[in-house]
Amino acid sequence: MKQSRYIVITLFVVIGVLTSSSCKKFYDINKDPDAITTGPIEQQLTSLTVNVGFFAGSDLNRYSSLLMQQYSGQSSGANNQTQDYEKYLIQGSDENNAWATMYATILNDAENIITNASATGSPHYSGVAKILKAYAYQLSVDVWGDIPFTEAQQLTQNTQPKYDTGTAIYTALIGLLDQGIAEVNATVSNKSPGANSTIYPGTFATTKNNWIKFANTLKLRLFLHYSEVDPGFAKAQIDQLINSAVPFIASNADNFQMAFLDQAASQNPIDQFETARAGYLVANDRLVGIMNAKNDPRRASYFTQFPAGSGLYKGSIGGAAPSQNYSKLHAYLRGYNGTRYTGDAPIRMLTFAEYNFIRAEAALRFGSPGVAQTFYTAGITASMTDAGVTAANISTYLTASGTLAGTPAQQLEQIITEKYVASYGVAVEPWTDWRRTGYPVITPPANAVVSFVPRSLYYPQSEIDLNPNAKQKSGLDVRIFWDKRP
């Protein structure tokens, strides 16, 4: 398969980057003048899409899923990193690789593609790169807050970029997405992505529609994040976007996700971590408890049964004594052929289910177009379909648990809680929803090193050491600009 060849080749590049560089400045200062610094945009897009998939499925995925009690850290004895993360012991040095992937790899590839595509009359490539750049920056702002933006990716011309505010970056990302949409939709382009893109691979005349739908839906996500800091702005922008009749993600087939393969060096990063560090992650009691209470049929895909063959599911809580007597991450996140884990489950980054829950929340809270109940039902249905639940079991669940009821606050809690279940394995967004709304209710584990659920992460130690513009945060309670909930 042509796509698998690209994935395997690029994964070796990814491994080399992650093991040889710890930050943007190190990468630039040690630049070999004889080394190749750029390459054909076809190959760079492969690298970009693979690295975006890994960025969303690796460290940031584990941090946010542990903080939001979807995963739980466990061991068979000695304490390990996932147990530290679950008790909020996440230090700057833990984040060096994620930051390096963002600045030394993802943004480097994106900027090279944008520059070269612009010079060679290939707007389809620059448009895709701009959309991916916007997504990567959205995740990064939501994790760290203020970060380098306007002075980033200047290589040796500026190895100590200034920090831009999260507010300014969000504003710029909307413009970047608009540019990306226009360029992807250009009628003439000397080169166009195809099977070399590991996200939305295929004939570009068809897949360009996927990129446009994703970009518009990502704008909805960004605007919804303003719900507490500026609800009037959130409503106005969401309503304007919906009323403009632009296309959004319209089915699970449109999901913004990266596919992986059942072959060496091509498995998804969640499965790779599970294979390399067996037992470090188990299902968390918070998520399992929500699903057990509703007899949720997604459990069979999300988790292994415990005890095996019992039809029961058991999650761990932070600080529990070392044990493996819990349900583990299963087929939905890892891929499974009935006898073994295959690693070919996709890394899901923005889904049709999320789109529907965004619309449900906007309709409920802002009176935005549409009916909250309709989108709520569609979100649950999309999630369950993606998890392989039968139509009959979906219908049973919706009859028992699929009707919004109570006060607006209670209905919001229902929407966000179902979104939380549907967003299992999606990096950062469940954490963002909790920071915005307080749902689902999360209580710090008994062994937490601080008394609150973190609102952002520390800056990487590599950045503090090498960039005087980087000032370490006073604590994990420092908030992102949109986080105004008490």
CATH A-level architecture: Alpha Horseshoe
Flag low-confidence runs: 1-36
Q: Into which percent range does the helicity of residues fall?
A: 40-55%
Strand/helix succession: HHHHEHHHHHHEHEHHHEHHHHHH
The main sheet comes to: 2 strands, antiparallel
Q: Helical element count?
A: 20
Average pLDDT over all residues: 93
Strand coverage percent: under 5%
Terminal residue distance: 52 Å
Read across the widest sheet, the strand sequence of neighbours is: 1-3
Named CATH topology: Serine Threonine Protein Phosphatase 5, Tetratricopeptide repeat
Report the principal-axis shape. Answer: globular
From the alpha carbons, calculate the radius of gyration and give it in angstroms. Answer: 21 Å
Q: So what's the CATH class?
A: Mainly Alpha
Oligomer: single chain
User: How many structural domains can be distinguished in the coordinates?
Assistant: 1
User: What class do helices, strands and sheet pairing give?
Assistant: mainly alpha
Count of individual beta strands: 4
Task: Give a short summary of the structure.
The chain is built from 20 helices and 4 strands. It is mostly helical and 486 residues long. Helix 6 (96-119) packs antiparallel against helix 7 (123-144).
Please characterize this protein's 3D structure.
The protein is mainly α. The protein contains 20 helices and four strands. It has one domain: Serine Threonine Protein Phosphatase 5, Tetratricopeptide repeat, CATH 1.25.40.390. It is 52% helix and 3% strand. The strands form two sheets. The chain has a two-stranded antiparallel ribbon with strand order 1-3. A two-stranded antiparallel ribbon has the order 2-4. Helix 7 packs parallel to helix 9 (204-224), helix 9 runs antiparallel to helix 10 (231-243) and helix 15 packs antiparallel against helix 16 (372-386). The longest helix is centred in the first third of the chain and has 24 residues, at 96-119.
